[in-house]
Fold this protein.
Amino acid sequence: MDEALRQRIEKLIDEHPIVLFMKGTRLFPRCGFSATAVHALKMCGVSDFLDVDVLKDPEIRAGIKEFSDWPTIPQLYVRGKFVGGSDIVREMVESGELQKLLAED
């Protein structure tokens, strides 16, 4: 990954407390996994987060996978830290872990 793309991704993650790299947007998810991640955030009371539509930016779509060393999208970041993809986020909601993470200062 080139340095400019790395910095672009880091800036998005650093400037927003919650970032979801996804297919589509929070209002119109374009895959079931992205819809699941959005739903999980809503269940935790999160309505204010940055949704990055990777379908509109092929550079970000490829780069975020390398950045996180995670092969799939969606990808959730909370306060600069990679949380996981759709399955992990769903499991964290079921166990109460995501709610705790989101409540931390």
In short: The mean pLDDT is 96. The longest strand covers residues 18-22. Residues 3-15 form the longest helix (13 residues). Helices lie at 3-15, 32-43, 58-68, 86-95, 97-103.
